[in-house]
Amino acid sequence: MKLPVYLDYSATTPVDPRVAEKMIPFLTENFGNPASRSHSFGWTAEKAVEEAREEVARLVNADPREIIWTSGATESNNLAIKGAAHFYETKGRHLITLKTEHKAVLDTMRELEAQGFEVTYLDPKPDGLLDFQAFREAFRADTSLVSIMHVNNEIGVIQDIAAIGALCRERGVIFHVDAAQSTGKVAIDLAKLPVDLMSFSAHKTYGPKGIGALYVRRKPRIRLKAMMHGGGHERGLRSGTLATHQIVGMGEAFRIAREEMAAESSRIRALRDRLLAGIADIEEVYINGDLEQRVPHNLNASFNYVEGESLMMAIKDLAVSSGSACTSSSLEPSYVLRALGRSDELAHSSIRFSIGRYTTEADVDFAISLIHKAVERLRDISPLWEMYKDGIDISSVQWAAAAH
Amino acid sequence: MIYFDHNATTPLDERVREAMEPYLSRLYGNASNLYRLGRVCRGAVEAAREQVAALVGAEPAEVTFTSGGTESNNLAIKGLAFSMRPGTVAVGATEHPAVSAPAAFLRTMGWRVETLSAGADGDIVAEQLDRFKPGGLSFASVMWANNETGAISDIPKIAGAVRERGGLLHTDAVQAAGKVPVDFHRSGVHLMSLSAHKIFGPKGAGALICDPAVSLVPLLHGGGQERGLRGGTENVPAIVGFGKAAELARSALDERSRHTRQLRERLEQGLAAMPGITLFAEHGARLPNTVQFALHGYDGEMLVMTLDRAGFAVSSGSACGSGVDEPSPVLLAMGVEPAVAKGAVRVSLGPANSGQEVDQFLAALQQFAAQTGAEHWPRAASA
Q: CA B243 to CA B16: how far, in whole Å?
């Protein structure tokens, strides 16, 4: 077995070899600028870009004209939220989102607040799902946009975007969905779903980094203020030379996702269930997020009485993360788990396992045994664990150190 | 097919592809992750930052990676504008749309946008800034070298004039870097945009070089990558490719410059011998690889299509504006008559082109003019 075992597919995925193979000719001989209209280098590149657009549209049952290329989901989220908020500013300056959104949504919301918009950040229920009662109450007369993600990157829960979208429609509010984590994992039918804007990423679905897309509904037409001005590419919504090889890679990755999603999901579900069963016998383990309304690819667990950093060090042979990749370089406990109401201690001792296309049973078994050993060893040297085993309720202890 | 459109995009250097390939397959990590795979990718991104910085005489910490030249220009112009109160911005008359469009957008945000006129040879002179009083200019954006004509402006002198007025200077060096010496610190500019795919690197990567004393409001929020200046998962393979391309451009700068200059002179001599030819920006400082000309009486778009059928990939102007049936705004800004500007053809050469290819091109052009052109010459002579 090749170490470390990669169980961090929600951070990024390897490029599928079929995708890489399709990309290479557009890095080398077919290197034209798709905007070059005067020679065949340009035409070849443009044709490849349009074929890829059709593949992306097909995975989510949209019209290719509704797909705008971007540099990734972060740009898609920025363009969707700022673009719509600014375009419909006269309608209202109130936005609604969830506290467990990705930073690309939350930081964009913060920026809009700095510009004078008002944002309601909803608490999820303890299972990570939207509290519909609180959501209904959050709408105001001047609410212009709601942004709620499809699949959460840390805990894998799936929000009911059909029901959320229906509520937005009733009120004439634009609905944006960050679907970076859901393509290839959950079926998406934009012909049926009441979603106006949807962000996609290639590198979470076995495509290359540096490319993403934004779905912008045509009927009813949603309009945006562009964020990148220039040569007028992508019908003026997003200027900049199109990176043909990356676009081709995203198209191929989404084609594979469409064709293989069903079979892949059931295989991955079996692996996830094996992992869950394998760690469930450890004492004081808490699974974070609803287990039913969740993609099979994700398992997020907190190991009580184990220091998160020490645990990460002890399982170096597993490439996993505590929290999302974007925040994993900080030592802060996951804000997603905090929003579910988990204590700092539990949030700190959490591990996100994300399973993918190349994960094997042997990988999972290796992970199970490594975690067992690590948790056991760390608890053996933990005074807190000893106190817990002695029946002392740690939360009620008055620490002398509190005086400092 | 002979490729003479290197200012639109360049083929990927084989050595760049080799450098990128591991990061497209085995080394697929997210550079923000703490485990080994992530750290390897982080190391590769930082090595590329050093390579890009070295190409333009900057410090690695001054380099912010973006998705390309357009994003760099947008980040520079909007990022500066949003960090200050609306004031006056001066923009060169021949800028790429990736500068002129965000500048036009600033107008809707309460900014005064002033145009710096170009001379007959396409360059912007520092004296254009004389009209601004000290404190009367927030910032300016002037491109180092123009994408259509190749005209080079004296950026260090312009930077001096902008600084005298207490302003900041951004330069779009997308076309200049790798073709002529560009030195960020010595030039005195505060911000500089670069692109990978113009220097035999991949599409989808660019950089903004920024003086650490200058504050910018990010364009892309979220994740905190690039020291908070540019959110989004790093495009590791493209960044690695950009770094390698920058390293190669730096070491081959003189050789590439000499080679393309020789080809350009050969082409210009051939063109000068043909009747009815106008060379644009002929007498000023110019990129060694760029020739823009018009064959009087012929439509440029039609001519590039004909040349395509004859096996030559050239363009009538910038790739970003191609397909638009209007004379080049760059040429109009230099005072070229619209009828002449509509005839423009741009040849942009690369290190792999040869003298023989230039000769073939000249022969094709002459043959075409001889076949179709008899009735055109009198009109051309009077134009």
A: 9
